[in-house]
Amino acid sequence: MHPRSARSDGQLPDLRHGTEAELATAETGPNPELVDMTRRFWIGLGLAIPVAALEIAGASPTFTR
């Protein structure tokens, strides 16, 4: 972010939301958004694999009646 756009209280002048940290440090810990999206990705993948396997198996001539 450009230094002139951030105010001393950490708010953006027009948008009124917080700014990102200028320097990343080891003390900040894991990003909660990244943890949440990673968990959602693995849950979605776990649900999608059986559906895809059933669809592939249904298209195979050896599994049809």
Principal-axes shape call: rod-shaped
Number of helices: 1
- Please give the number of β-strands: 0
Terminal-residue CA separation: 62 Å
Look at the helices and sheets and give the structural class: mainly alpha
Main beta sheet, described?
none
pLDDT < 50 runs, ≥5 residues: none
The fraction of residues assigned to DSSP E strands is under 5%
The Rg value, from CA coordinates, equals 23 Å
Helix percent reads 40-55%
Looking at how many chains there are and whether they match, the oligomeric state comes to single chain
Kindly report the average pLDDT value.
76
Order of helices and strands: H
Summarize the structure.
This protein is an all-alpha fold. The chain has 1 helix and no strands.
Give the SSE map.
Layout: H1 32-59
What does this protein look like?
This protein has 65 residues and is mainly α. 43% of the residues lie in helices and 0% in strands. It has one helix and no strands. It has one helix spanning 32-59.
Keywords:
single chain, 65 residues, mainly alpha, 1 helix
